[in-house]
Design a protein that fits this description.
Layout lengths: L12 E3 L8 E6 L2 E10 L6 H18 L3 E11 L6 H17 L3 E9 L4 E10 L14 E5 L5 H9 L5 H12 L3 H7 L6 E4 L4 H13 L2 E4 L10 H6 L5 H10 L3 E3 L5 H8 L7 E6 H13 L6 E7 L6 E3 L1
Parallel strand pairs: 4-5, 9-13, 10-13
Antiparallel strand pairs: 1-2, 2-3, 3-6, 4-6, 7-11, 7-12, 8-11, 9-12
Helix pairs in contact: 1-2, 3-4
Length: 320
């Protein structure tokens, strides 16, 4: 749809919509640019406070993926009139506020509408030096790929709705979704990173495709190396798949290839839409192990080297 609209051009527009980047970046002066992003969605967990935390962490993540620091946020609310107690909304916004404070940013307002279905999220503004923007394009052949969070949040939250997910799986997924990508971003910035994206609605394969196609390379992801949330494989085998997973599969079927030896449940996890997922980082292969080591030393024990880039092949992403 966006391709049918006239693009915006401005001498200070550093990152717009042309490469499906995580956020937009606009230069204010030679040493300062702002990072803008917005995200909101319907509840994926039962507890309102936790939902608010997850939604805020998810929105903040786009700024971290670009290498920026969040500064301000605006609440976005859709709330059904007369069907839910306003205390629920209070708890949601309180949860979002907690994550914004943890990020060192401030909420300066927001907007709400009456809606048939509850929705919550944020528009976030961050700051960055114009010369230090990390985009989702720029991957080079022979780069290594490092992922900072385990996969499976969509499958597990679907399992929660169907009462098939274990308490341990739900706790692990919630802990992952609530966790900010601030530490991962700070560590990443101390390495010679060529590209980065946070893994969210398009799943690992979808965001890998955006990085690969925009960079003119092929990304090879190693299925057996993928970090997984506990219970994700079992729930995938039981069919706890989101509608987004099916849409991702349809969209990517001609853009990716999957080795026939890979179990179906691992393929589903690679397609699974993530909420507040990890950073997918491309950097020189000889620095990847050091990045993983540093991330784990800072408490990100799910950081894993999961693949590499090659010169362009017949498809943009291969799952092997």
């Amino acid at each position: 749809m966006l391709h049918s609209l006239p693009p915006f051009h401005h001498p200070n527009l550093i990152v717009g919509t042309e490469t499906s980047d995580d956020a937009g970046v606009f230069r204010l002066r030679d040493d300062l640019a702002i990072v803008n992003t917005v995200d909101f969605f319907t509840p994926i967990v039962d507890d309102p406070y936790t939902f608010g935390q997850i939604a805020a962490a998810n929105a903040l993540s786009d700024v971290y993926a670009m290498g920026g620091e969040p500064t301000t946020a605006l609440n976005i609310v859709g709330f059904p009139r007369g069907r839910l107690d306003l205390d629920i909304l209070t708890d949601i916004i309180r949860g979002g506020s907690e994550r914004v404070r943890a990020a060192g940013a401030v909420i300066i307002g927001g907007h709400s509408i009456i809606d048939e279905e509850l929705k919550y999220g944020m528009a976030v503004t961050g700051v960055i030096h114009p010369d230090r923007v990390i985009r989702n394009v720029g991957v080079r052949p022979d780069d290594a790929l490092v992922l900072t969070k385990a996969l499976g949040t969509g499958i597990i939250t679907t399992g929660l709705k169907r009462r098939q997910a274990s308490a341990a799986s739900v706790r692990a997924a919630v802990a992952s979704m609530v966790r900010l990508n601030d530490t991962a971003s700070a560590v990443m910035r101390s390495f010679p990173v060529h590209a980065c994206s946070d893994v969210t609605g398009f799943g690992l394969l979808g965001h890998g495709f955006e990085m690969a196609s925009g960079s003119g390379v092929t990304i090879v992801l190693e299925a057996r190396a993928l970090p997984l949330l506990p219970g994700a494989r079992r729930l995938a085998q039981q069919g706890c798949l989101t509608g987004g997973c099916k849409r991702n599969r349809e969209y990517l079927k001609t853009k990716t290839s999957v080795d026939r030896s890979i179990p179906a449940d691992l393929v589903e996890i690679a397609l699974d839409p993530q909420t507040s997922g990890g950073l997918l980082v491309a950097l020189p292969a000889d620095r990847a192990d050091a990045l993983v080591e540093e991330l784990r030393a800072k408490g990100i024990d799910t950081a894993t080297r999961i693949g590499y880039a090659t010169a362009p092949q017949d498809v943009s992403v291969k799952l092997v």
